[in-house]
Amino acid sequence: MRSTPQHSPSRTSKRLPIRSPQDLAGGVLLLAIAALGLIGSWHLDFGQFGGVGSGMVPKAVSVMIAGFGIGLIVQGFLSSGGEQMAPWSFRGLFFVLGAALLFAWTIRPLGLIFAGPIAIVFASLADRTTRPLEIGIFTIALTAFCIGLFSFVLRLPIPVLPSSLPYPLDAIF
Amino acid sequence: MTELTDNLALGFATALTLKNLGLCFLGCMIGSLIGVLPGVGPIATIAMLLPLTFGVDPVGALIMLAGIYYGAQYGGSTTAILVNIPGEATSVVTVLDGHQMAKQGHAGIALGICAIGSFIAGTVATLIIAALGAPLTKMALLFGPADYFSLMVLGLVFAVVLARGSVPKAIAIILVGLLLSTVGIDIETGEERLTYGFNELADGLSFAVAAMGIFGFAEIIRNLEVKETREVVQAPIGRLLPGAKELRQSAAPIARGTLLGSLLGLLPGNGAVLGPFASYTLEKKLAAEPERFGQGAIEGVAGPESANNAGAQTSFIPLLTLGIPPNAVMALMVGAMTIHGIVPGPQVISHQPALFWGMIASMWIGNLMLLIINLPLIGLWVRLLKVPYRLMFPAIVVFCCIGIYSINNSGLEVFMVAVFGLFGYMLVKFGFEPAPLLLGFVLGKLMEEKLRQALVISRGSFMTFFDRPISAILLALALALAVIAVLPTIRKSRDTVFQE
């Protein structure tokens, strides 16, 4: 855990008395999770203490999470010297997570021989210093290495070659 | 005593077959190889390499996994010393003096003393596990559902105390973990919970997927934000074997670190992470010239590294005797065991003695192997660490994808990893520490099961948690810990420990 949020003096603004945006955002996130929990367990029986129903734990836990969420939101407005939000790296999020999504989408129809390079090249775009020629050679070498290691040496049942052409797009899950 | 030697003999007979030795070696090698990569800690390493063990028989698979675990740990220390980057929370301390030693041209000795200290700590911890395993297992049979529940509450309270940052956030994040554990079909009623109509969620969320997203992908994205400041030590590595003077300096810190780490590793709720911090603080207090610490003091490497390894090993005890994983790494071990049809808990030792003792023996063999294979390989690690991150991280991404896909041959799980990656990134940005979430997730199912059993037995009375002596003591301990955690003076000193 290397990124330690910096303590910075709270800004004083007349319109938005948000002292700690980090706590406020955290509280909103907790409320959203609690809402998801309650929606997902709404139809379940709460039961009694002698015969706990399937809904008791998810509902009770969701309510507690909501409580902490409200607490954090209040703290976000009241606490002095709260913490500012560190800037987000949308580039990293988009390309790194996108690479995983592309891999999930292409591995079955295209096989590792194509899904691997797609994921590697897409992920590499997350870094501004990536050089085209270097990443091209690296991609070929790494794909060959992965196929050799995972498919031939370790014998994992991962598809290497495309299953069929043309590939239906819904064949992934 | 004869029982202990008999058991260990059975263990070594199991572990010392050519095949199991080979698996242990392979695990240590691949574990160190992945663990050396900056930003990849043991949790991500194990989640990534889990599928490698699927084709092996249960005993071999667990031996290999233990090898991967130790390899990953040692790889993290190597990175901490050679580069100024701790691979995981527990090697933060090693960075302080280890990297200074490396800058002064003593990287070899720092790595050597790490390996030797870890080996000694591993040997002692193996003996402790062997000695305590059987009696603790017998004690575990006295535990009723209420006692189990209270023990897990204690573990979670402990996790809150250990978490950095605000206490309410730590509690909230544990609750989120508990909520995540309820996804899937309810074991008692067969109703679908929190599946939102997706059939794929009926089996529940996979722990490896959550761990990989939160600790693997979120970590990669955060590493990309930091400007590349990785400096692999330019100074020569120097000789590897410490001389008489260094050994004399390190002997006492290794002994103290081993003891501290072993004790802390026994605690539920990931007490093992405390070991290196406690050992470093202790050595600094005891030192004749405390100002040497931070400037390359060998005691500051020897003690914490021994504590780290001892704790890593004794944290197997709660898992093997009670079936309760005390931290995220052990939770992954549970996942691996379940895949091979082993339910961790007190019954393993009586039903599958070869597996239990074989694994314990292989812990020691794994430590020995690390000592032998890692020292000659340091040159290779140095060269690997010189690979720039812009090439390293796409490789890590694709390894993670292949690893997760292979667990269930499921593209959906790779998709879920990305979702958890986003979630983990948000948590860090909003000031939550993600480790307690995984512990809540790990313990959630078992806690709910035990809660329901306990309440059925007591016909709905919560007094059962206070009437049973074991449960009452555990809850009292949990309460005492919670009070300590919120007391301002202790909080302050806790924060300084973490800052050091």
Radius of gyration of chain B: 22 Å
Give the chain pair forming the largest contact, with residue counts.
A-B, 80 and 78 residues
Low-confidence stretches of chain A are 1-14
What is the strand tally of chain A?
0
Structural class of chain A: mainly alpha
Major beta sheet of chain A, specifics?
none
Strand content of chain B: under 5%
Tell me the span between the first and last alpha carbons of chain B. 42 Å
Cα shape of chain A:
flat
SSE order of chain B, as H and E? Answer: HHHHHHHEEHHHHHHHHHHHHHH
Q: What distance lies between the first and last C-alpha atoms of chain A, to the nearest angstrom?
A: 34 Å
Looking at how many chains there are and whether they match, the oligomeric state comes to heterodimer
- SS class of chain B: mainly alpha
Q: Helices and strands in order, then pairings?
A:
The complex is a heterodimer of chains A (173) and B (500).
Chain A: H1 21-41, H2 56-78, H3 90-110, H4 112-124, H5 132-153
Helix pairs in contact in A: 1-2, 3-4, 4-5
Chain B: H1 2-15, H2 18-36, H3 42-49, H4 58-82, H5 92-140, H6 145-162, H7 167-181, E1 184-185, E2 192-193, H8 207-225, H9 244-266, H10 274-286, H11 299-314, H12 316-322, H13 328-339, H14 346-351, H15 353-385, H16 389-408, H17 411-429, H18 435-457, H19 464-467, H20 469-486, H21 488-499
Antiparallel strand pairs in B: 1-2
